[in-house]
Amino acid sequence: MRMPAYRPPAGHSPRPGLRDTALARRLRCRLVGGDERGSALIEFIVVGLLLTLPVFYLVITLARLQAGTYAVAAAARESSRMFVTADSDAAGARRSEAAAAMSFADQGFTGEGSVRMRCSRQPCLSPDSVIEGVADLDVDLPLIPDFLRGVVPSSIHVHSRHAEVVDHYRHYGAR
């Protein structure tokens, strides 16, 4: 495709000393605002990246938070259930810790999170006693560099609790 020849506006003459070469015509055409081939593609890519990257970060962050929420909900529920079905308080504590560790690991939080058990009566496995499992986890936000962790909040705390009732007809210590 040939570029149109530059024509100065009426009443103006080209500057003296500037030869009418292909480079000069192209320069004048650019300065006047003529040829912009290919710039739409570049603009589309730049704007697309500027809009898409924050959306991807949001999706990644929400997925990580959802995994943390699932982890604490499962840890609280399963640790309470494991404690209630145990033969003794000591066995219940061990079983609830193991269930919570498996729940956290299942969602990718191995070695993170904590669970604690509360009992409404002593001993905990007395009939009609309420066993409450409380799970806590700090979910680190992805892609935040270490040097910003002191300035920007870099984790979100998630918390869950679940209560189970010991069977009314259960005899403590017997199975």
Overall description:
There is one protein chain. The protein has 175 residues and is α+β, with helices and mostly antiparallel strands. It contains three helices and three strands. The chain has helices spanning 22-32, 39-84, 89-106, and strands at 114-119, 130-140, 155-165. The protein has a three-stranded antiparallel sheet, with helices on one face. Helix 2 (39-84) runs antiparallel to helix 3 (89-106). The longest helix has 46 residues, at 39-84. It is rod-shaped. The N and C termini lie far apart (91 Å).
For the structure shown, list the relevant keywords.
175 residues, alpha+beta, 3-stranded antiparallel β-sheet
Largest sheet: 3 strands, antiparallel
| Outline type | rod-shaped
Query: How many alpha or pi helices?
Result: 3
The helix fraction, in percent, is: 40-55%
Q: Brief overview, please?
A:
The protein contains 3 helices and 3 strands; from the N terminus they run αααβββ.
Give the helix/strand layout:
Blueprint: H1 22-32, H2 39-84, H3 89-106, E1 114-119, E2 130-140, E3 155-165
Antiparallel strand pairs: 1-2, 2-3
Helix pairs in contact: 2-3
